[in-house]
Specification:
It is a single chain. The protein contains 14 helices and 20 strands. The protein folds into 3 domains: 171 residues, FAD/NAD(P)-binding domain, CATH 3.50.50.60; 102 residues, Orthogonal Bundle (Guanine Nucleotide Dissociation Inhibitor, domain 1), CATH 1.10.405; 95 residues, Polyamine Oxidase, Chain A, domain 2 (Alpha-Beta Complex). This is Squalene-associated FAD-dependent desaturase. One of its GO terms (molecular function) is oxidoreductase activity.
């Protein structure tokens, strides 16, 4: 079988990657996406004259799979990757500092970066280096490590409350969408090991200079069309059924009616709480496990000012309700003034609050972080919410994350919530899509495309 039929369910980063991987290997690909657009949790939409990202997403130099996807789509030039990690940090009282890595080899670069981080006392800086090196010695695949909260571990290793808030949560809240007290130690150690200890430049920061739909969904649609893939949006899959001959039938519906898609292999790239309802009985040893991961929210506050208020492309905030601020003026197509997006992870307390209440809190908080906002007029302000932005990356989640293969050969799982050895990031999503496509093709009826290009 030289051209197996592969159906990918889900058009987020994991599904797009799986579809491209299968298509590049020569499969006949059908991609079914429930929403009217591709991109999943990384998309943009029109709001008047603005093109708005649904959330603020960054990547690191160590995100090699994600950066490979950007190259595959021909859009790497639509991103910026720092030559050297350099993050301006501002406190809620207006103190400023920079977290900038040194030029020495890892892990010495970390000591150099902390030496200049003025928001920590000399004692806290010294203890932070020792804690980072201790994190580097942990086995992130050990269930006993995963069972411990990051906050508990930090306290046991001499990290003061100030160090937790001004350093550790600066790193981990954005990457784990959880406060230290609520985060898995194994996942936090993964972030530190791969982002801060593995290589000198691993944590250099990258971000998009165009709206996310132009970075992901739109170029992926073009690339899949060039491969001859059948991409359908607005299609809701209701079930995947074995066909009795080693293959599958994917049942779906849309405004134009119901349809059945025959497949030699299927990749389910859907949220963790949707998997059990789509899979055949017996496909997973623990079918309830993915849904037990739960979800964690992110809130974004979008503010347009009548004039430029900062020259920084982004900044991080500590001891403030604001966590990160990104300048999206040019990317959103704003001709005058300045458009800033405020990103708030681990936003359980904010996700259900009225927009007026959020703006009443966050707009004044910007005055301490960005002095130029004090005299500027707000011409537009609104809030976007992602109630299920990531799975809840809490202690004990390792055992709830299945790998790409199921018990049914040819049926594979993808998503940042699967066992990728990464947190719920764009990198994890892309890695999961690659792994799922390869597993599905290798196990398809009959085995096909073994040794497909990577």
């Amino acid at each position: 079988m030289s051209h197996p039929r592969v159906v990918v369910v889900g058009g987020g980063l994991a599904g797009l990657t799986a579809a491209l991987e299968a298509g590049d290997a020569g499969a006949q690909v059908t991609l079914l996406e429930r929403s009217p657009r591709l991109g999943g949790a990384t998309h943009s939409f029109r709001r008047g004259a603005l093109e708005v990202d649904n959330g603020q997403h960054v990547f690191l130099r160590c995100c090699t799979a994600y950066r490979g996807l950007l190259r595959r789509l021909g859009v790497e030039s639509d991103t910026v990757l720092q030559d050297r990690l350099d993050v301006p940090v501002v406190t809620g009282s207006g103190q400023t500092a920079r977290l900038r890595r040194g030029a020495l080899p890892a892990p010495l670069h970390l000591a150099r970066a902390l030496a200049g981080y003025r928001l920590l006392s000399p004692r806290d800086r010294s203890h932070a280096v020792r804690a980072a090196l201790a994190l580097g010695r942990l086995r992130t695949d050990d269930p006993d490590v995963d069972a411990v909260s990051f906050g508990t571990w930090l306290a046991a290793h001499g990290q003061s409350p100030a160090a937790v808030e001004r350093l550790w949560e600066l790193v981990t809240v954005a990457t784990l969408n959880a406060r230290a007290a609520d985060a898995s130690l194994a996942l936090a150690a993964t972030v530190v090991q791969r982002g801060l200890l593995a290589e000198r430049g691993a944590a250099d920061l990258g971000y998009a200079t165009v709206p996310l739909s132009r970075l992901h969904g739109e170029p992926a649609a073009r690339a899949l069309a060039a491969l001859g893939a059948d991409v359908r949006c607005g299609v809701k899959v209701s079930a995947v059924r074995p066909d009795g001959d080693g293959g599958f039938t994917v049942l779906a519906g849309s405004r134009t009616g119901d349809a059945a898609f025959p497949a030699d292999a299927v990749v389910l790239a859907v949220p963790s709480d949707a998997v059990a309802g789509l899979m055949p009985a017996g496909a997973l040893a623990a079918p309830a496990a993915p849904a037990a991961l739960g979800s964690a929210p992110i809130v974004n506050v979008h503010v347009v000012y009548d004039r430029p208020v900062t020259t920084s492309p982004f900044l991080a905030a500590v001891e403030s309700p604001v966590q990160w601020v990104f300048d999206r003026t040019a990317a959103a197509g704003l001709d005058s003034g300045q458009y800033l997006a405020l990103s708030v992870s681990a936003a359980d307390a904010d996700i259900g609050r009225p927009t007026a209440d959020l703006l009443a809190q966050y707009l004044p908080a910007m005055h301490a972080l960005v002095p130029g906002t004090r005299t500027a007029e707000v011409t537009e302000a609104f809030v976007t919410r992602e109630p299920a932005a990531t799975f809840r990356q809490a202690p004990g989640t390792l055992q709830l994350r299945p790998g790409p293969r199921t018990r049914l050969p040819g049926l594979a799982l993808a998503g940042a919530w699967t066992r990728t050895d990464w947190p719920a990031t764009m990198e994890g999503a892309v890695r999961s899509g690659r792994a799922a496509a390869r597993a599905a093709l290798q196990d398809a009826r009959p085995p096909a495309l073994l040794g497909a290009p990577g």
